[in-house]
Amino acid sequence: MNTLHAAYSSAVPHTLVTACGLERERERERERERERERERERDDDDDD
What's the sign of the alpha-carbon dihedral 18, 20, 21, 25? Predict the structure, then answer.
């Protein structure tokens, strides 16, 4: 195995793990934002 292949083989899994982790974090943030929006809507409904 040459050096370039070894570097690529070791970097790709880490890159995928990082990308998946970032995507999960973005999804959690989107879910938190949706929950905050639902709470605001409930609060607005309570004011009526």
Answer: positive
